[in-house]
C-alpha cells in the first residue's frame, strides 16, 4: 500500500472507532451494535480499511497485545472479597458452571453444524464462553433491572472476561499441542505454555511492585508504567510461546488488584480512555477482516449456534447456578436471558483462528466469521428484547431516584430523613463513627465504609445510585471527591458551595456542580441550625415558609430535582418541597 493509502486507512479506522462509540453513547446502546456493522461495511466498501493490508504480519501480534491490555484492565476489577452471600454464590456458579457447560455444549454443536474438526469446535466453544462488561453494562444501564440482578450480571461480566481469556489461551495451546504430537508430548507442551504465562505474570508482578512500592510513581507515570509493563511482559511471553502473554496479563492484573502490598493510583483515567480506544479499534479492525465471502457458508449455521446458546445453554446455566438461592423465579428468568458476547470473544477469535489456520486445523478459518455472527446476533437480540423481558418479568428497578448523601452532620441526617419520608430510597455515608451512628439511629441506610474505593475500584457497591451529594464540612474533600466520583455513578455529582473567601487547596474551583444557592455553604447550614432552623418536607403547593430556602423537589413520580447554582426547579402539583426552614424544630434535631 502507498503512504497515502496507509494514512487514509489508519485515519478512517480511528475516526470510525471513536465516532461509533460517540454515536452509541448518544443512542444509549452498546457500542458493539454500531461498531460491528460499521467495521464490516467499511471493510467491504473501502479498500484502505483493511488491517491485514495496512499492518501485514504485524496485525495478529498487535491484536494479541491489545487483548492482553484489555484482560489486565478487566483483572484489576476482580476482588472476590466484595461479593457476599447468595450474590457471591450465584456469580461464582455462573462463572465455573457457565464456562464448563457453554464451552462443552457449544463445541458439541459447532462440530456438526459448522462442519469443522473437533479441535476447531473445542476452540470456538472456549471462545464463546465470554460475555464482558463492555456489552452487559450499557444494556443494563438501559434496562435498569433491580440492584441485585445488576450486581450479579455486572460481576459475571467483569469476571468472565479474564477467566474466558485464560480458558481460551489454555484451550488454544492444548489444541496446538495435540496436533501432530503424542499425548505425552502434547501435555508437556500444554503445561509449558501455562508455565510460561504464569512465570511471565510473576515477573510482571514483581516489576510492577518495584514501580509502585520502590519508585512510587505518580498517577501519570504509574499508568504509563503499567501499560509498558503489561505489553512488555506479554510480548516477551508471546516470543517464547504464542499467546502465553494473555495468561501473564491476567496474572498481573489479579496480583495488583488483590495483593495488599500494592499501592496503585485509584484513578486511571488515561488507562480507561486507552482501553476504550483499543476496544473501538479492535472491533472496527476485526469486523473489517470479515468478508461476505467468508460468511457465505457460515452465517446460517452460526445463527443456529447462536440460537442454541441463547435458548438452551444460557437458561440451563442460569437454572443450575441459581438453585438453592433466594432469587425469585423472575430474577432467575432474567439472568437466563442476558449473555451477549463481546470484545474478548472477537479478539481471541481473531488471534487464535489465525494460529490454528497456520497449523492446518480443519475448519479453523470458520472460527472468526462464526464468532462474528454470534456476537452480532446475541447483542442485537438482547439489545432489542432485554428491556421488554425485564418489564414482563417485573424485575425493573423503580424509576424513583436513589440519592447518596455524603456527610453526617445533624442537618445532613435530617435531610436524609426528609428525603426518605418523601418516599425515596436514601443512602448515606460518613467517615466518623459518631456520624455513622447518628445515621443509623435516624433509620437511614448506611453505605459501605470504603466509599471512594468502592466507586473507583470496579466494584458494584454504588450501582443504582442516581446522584451523589457531597455535604461535608471539608470543602476540599467535597471538591476532590466529586471530581473522583464523576463518571462512576449513573447521575450527576453535586457538592456544597465553598465560602467566597475560601483559600482551600482546590475549592471552589473544581469537582461537581454546586448545590443550592451559593450562599448556602456548610457554615451557613451549621449557623442556621444553631439558631433553630430545620430541614423538612412539605407539599410543594403550599406557600413557602417565610425565610425558608428551597433545597430539593421530590417529584410525584419519585425523581429528585435539586436546586443548583445554575437552576431552580419549578414545583408541580403532587411534588414535595424539601426546605431549610427557620424555627422548624425544637431545641434538638431528631438526628441529635
| Contiguous runs where pLDDT drops below 50 for at least 5 residues | 453-461, 586-592
**Which structural class is indicated by helix and strand composition?**
alpha/beta
| Nearest-integer average pLDDT | 80
What is the overall number of helices?
Answer: 22
Shape estimate:
elongated
Q: Count of DSSP E strands?
A: 10
Order of strands side by side in the largest beta sheet?
3-2-1-4-5-6
Ends apart, CA distance between termini: 75 Å
Q: What profile does the largest beta sheet have?
A: 6 strands, parallel
Strand content: 5-15%
Radius of gyration: 27 Å
Question: Helical residue percent?
Answer: 55-70%
Task: Please specify the SSE layout and strand pairing.
Layout (H helix, E strand, L loop, with lengths): L2 H25 L3 H15 L5 H5 L3 H17 L9 H30 L3 H10 L5 H11 L3 H32 L4 H32 L4 H22 L3 H15 L10 H21 L2 H4 L3 H23 L7 H7 L7 H16 L8 H27 L9 E4 L3 H12 L5 E3 L3 H9 L3 E2 L4 H6 L10 E4 L4 H11 L7 E3 L17 E2 L7 H9 L3 E6 L9 E6 L5 E3 L13 E6 L11
Parallel strand pairs: 1-2, 1-4, 2-3, 4-5, 5-6
Antiparallel strand pairs: 7-10, 8-9, 8-10
Helix pairs in contact: 1-2, 1-12, 2-12, 2-17, 4-8, 4-10, 4-11, 4-12, 4-16, 5-6, 5-8, 5-14, 6-8, 6-16, 7-8, 7-17, 8-9, 8-11, 8-16, 9-10, 9-11, 10-11, 12-16, 14-17, 15-17, 16-17
Amino acid at each position: 500500500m502507498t503512504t497515502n493509502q496507509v494514512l487514509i486507512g489508519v485515519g478512517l479506522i480511528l475516526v470510525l472507532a471513536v465516532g461509533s462509540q460517540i454515536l452509541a453513547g448518544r443512542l444509549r446502546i452498546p457500542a458493539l451494535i454500531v461498531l460491528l456493522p460499521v467495521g464490516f461495511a467499511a471493510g467491504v466498501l473501502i479498500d484502505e480499511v483493511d488491517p491485514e493490508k495496512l499492518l501485514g504480519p504485524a496485525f495478529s501480534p498487535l491484536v494479541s497485545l491489545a487483548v492482553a491490555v484489555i484482560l489486565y484492565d478487566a483483572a484489576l476489577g476482580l476482588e472476590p472479597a466484595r461479593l457476599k452471600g447468595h450474590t457471591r454464590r450465584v456469580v461464582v456458579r455462573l462463572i465455573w458452571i457457565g464456562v464448563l457447560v457453554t464451552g462443552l455444549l457449544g463445541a458439541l454443536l459447532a462440530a456438526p453444524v459448522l462442519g469443522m474438526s473437533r479441535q476447531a469446535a473445542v476452540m470456538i466453544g472456549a471462545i464463546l464462553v465470554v460475555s464482558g462488561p463492555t456489552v452487559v453494562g450499557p444494556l443494563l444501564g438501559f434496562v435498569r433491572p433491580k440492584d441485585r440482578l445488576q450486581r450479579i450480571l455486572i460481576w459475571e461480566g467483569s469476571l468472565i472476561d479474564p477467566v474466558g481469556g485464560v480458558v481460551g489461551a489454555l484451550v488454544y495451546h492444548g489444541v496446538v499441542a495435540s496436533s501432530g504430537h503424542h499425548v505425552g508430548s502434547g501435555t508437556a507442551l500444554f503445561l509449558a505454555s501455562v508455565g510460561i504465562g504464569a512465570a511471565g505474570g510473576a515477573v510482571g508482578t514483581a516489576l510492577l511492585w518495584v514501580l509502585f512500592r520502590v519508585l512510587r510513581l505518580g498517577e501519570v507515570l504509574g499508568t504509563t508504567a503499567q501499560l509498558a509493563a503489561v505489553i512488555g511482559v506479554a510480548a516477551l511471553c508471546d516470543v517464547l510461546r504464542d499467546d502465553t502473554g494473555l495468561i501473564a496479563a491476567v496474572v498481573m492484573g489479579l496480583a495488583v488488584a488483590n495483593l495488599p502490598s500494592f499501592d496503585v493510583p485509584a484513578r486511571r483515567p488515561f488507562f480507561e480512555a486507552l482501553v476504550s480506544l483499543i476496544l473501538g479499534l479492535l472491533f472496527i479492525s476485526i469486523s473489517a477482516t470479515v468478508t461476505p465471502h467468508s460468511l457465505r457458508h457460515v452465517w446460517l449455521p452460526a445463527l443456529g449456534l447462536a440460537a442454541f446458546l441463547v435458548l438452551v445453554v444460557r437458561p440451563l446455566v442460569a437454572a443450575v447456578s441459581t438453585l438453592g438461592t433466594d432469587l425469585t423465579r423472575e430474577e432467575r428468568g432474567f439472568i437466563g436471558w442476558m449473555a451477549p458476547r463481546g470484545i474478548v470473544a472477537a479478539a481471541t477469535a481473531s488471534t487464535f483462528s489465525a494460529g490454528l489456520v497456520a497449523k492446518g486445523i480443519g475448519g479453523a478459518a470458520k472460527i472468526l466469521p462464526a464468532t462474528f455472527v454470534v456476537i452480532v446476533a446475541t447483542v442485537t437480540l438482547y439489545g432489542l428484547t432485554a428491556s421488554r423481558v425485564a418489564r414482563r418479568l417485573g424485575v425493573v428497578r423503580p424509576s424513583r431516584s436513589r440519592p447518596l448523601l455524603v456527610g453526617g452532620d445533624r442537618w445532613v441526617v435530617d435531610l436524609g430523613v426528609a428525603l426518605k419520608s418523601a418516599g425515596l430510597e436514601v443512602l448515606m455515608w460518613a467517615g466518623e463513627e459518631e456520624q455513622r451512628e447518628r445515621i443509623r439511629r435516624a433509620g437511614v441506610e448506611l453505605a459501605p465504609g470504603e466509599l471512594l474505593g468502592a466507586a473507583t475500584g470496579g466494584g458494584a457497591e454504588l450501582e443504582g445510585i442516581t446522584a451523589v451529594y457531597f455535604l461535608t464540612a471539608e470543602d476540599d474533600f467535597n471538591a476532590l471527591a466529586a471530581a473522583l466520583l464523576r463518571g462512576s455513578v449513573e447521575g450527576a455529582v453535586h457538592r456544597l458551595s465553598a465560602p467566597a473567601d475560601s483559600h482551600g487547596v482546590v475549592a471552589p474551583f473544581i469537582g461537581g456542580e454546586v448545590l443550592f444557592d451559593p450562599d448556602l455553604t456548610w457554615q451557613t447550614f451549621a449557623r442556621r441550625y444553631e439558631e433553630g432552623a430545620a430541614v423538612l418536607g412539605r407539599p410543594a403547593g403550599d406557600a413557602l415558609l417565610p425565610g425558608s430556602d428551597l433545597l430539593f423537589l421530590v417529584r410525584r413520580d419519585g425523581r429528585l430535582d435539586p436546586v443548583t447554582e445554575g437552576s431552580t426547579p419549578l414545583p408541580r402539583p403532587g411534588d414535595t418541597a424539601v426546605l431549610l426552614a427557620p424555627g422548624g424544630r425544637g431545641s434538638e434535631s431528631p438526628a441529635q
